[in-house]
Design a protein that fits this description.
mainly alpha, about 70% helix, about 0% strand, globular
């Protein structure tokens, strides 16, 4: 299999013994982006525009803060993001307060008595709807999540390319212990996006045969882990079950930073 610069991260991850090679790719990317946003990103105008607009999700704020490496830099990114969102919240809030005051001072006494104002369906252009949309967008936006999603999609494209073109990679792929269910879903979506119909069908068949085999394996390992707590099995060997619980959690939910 001929290596190219864009295939190296994928083949390196698939060369390791793990429950999900895509989790390895994801965790390395996440670590690299955490380093970047605590360092070089602080001095790049385009990056600061992006962090001002999107900020970070709770998980990535935790990762950035818990590094304890550049709290001043993180404070600066957080402050400019907070300022941008605060100005937007204030602007919409002024419209809400103004509309409420106008309604309160109107002659629509009956409407007030019946509580119709509180029950009116808000239009898409109403300040109430705008505020809710802004808050929802803030909850769902994250600079690191956005970059992770984009780069993981590129990796999935490479995986589909290698699987369809390289026999060596197909063999390597088939020898893996399956994937977490999060990345299983992403692989299925990628096969439909990047492979021809016949290839996608063949890929999905092989993938699910491999996945079921390894889900059965880890279920048995976890089952034995629970049975080892029975005193009657005290002297029985652990086999591969000693770390079955964290591996099972990863298999279900993807990469997890379990202590």
């Amino acid at each position: 299999m001929k290596e190219k610069i864009y295939t190296i991260p994928v083949t390196e991850a698939f060369g390791q013994d793990c429950e999900c090679p895509l989790c390895l790719l994801h965790s390395k990317l996440e670590n690299d982006y955490t380093d970047y946003y605590l360092g070089p990103a602080l001095m790049e105008p385009d990056s600061r525009i992006d962090t001002n607009k999107k900020g970070f999700c709770r998980r990535h704020f935790e990762l950035l803060y818990n590094r304890q490496e550049n709290r001043l830099g993180l404070a600066l990114e957080t402050h400019t993001h907070l300022n941008e969102k605060l100005s937007q919240i204030k602007e919409i809030s002024r419209d809400i307060i103004k509309a409420t005051n106008i309604r309160r001072n109107s002659d629509s006494v009956l409407s007030s008595l019946t509580g119709r104002f509180g029950k009116e369906k808000k239009s898409a252009s109403s300040p109430h709807t705008k505020l809710l949309k802004l808050l929802i967008d803030m909850e769902n936006s994250c600079t690191i999540c956005g970059r992770l999603e984009h780069t993981m999609d590129r990796y999935l494209d490479v995986i589909m390319y290698l699987w369809s073109k390289e026999a060596d990679f197909r063999k390597l792929f088939s020898e893996k212990k399956g994937f977490c269910l999060v990345h299983l879903r992403m692989l299925i979506e990628a096969s439909q996006k990047y492979l021809k119909a016949a290839e996608s069908e063949r890929f999905l068949s092989q993938l699910m045969e491999q996945q079921i085999e390894n889900l059965d394996r880890i279920e048995k390992e976890l089952d034995w882990f629970t049975k080892k707590f029975d005193y009657r099995n005290n002297d029985a060997p652990w086999g591969n079950s000693k770390d079955a619980l964290p591996r099972s959690i990863q298999k279900l939910k993807g990469y997890s930073d379990l202590k």
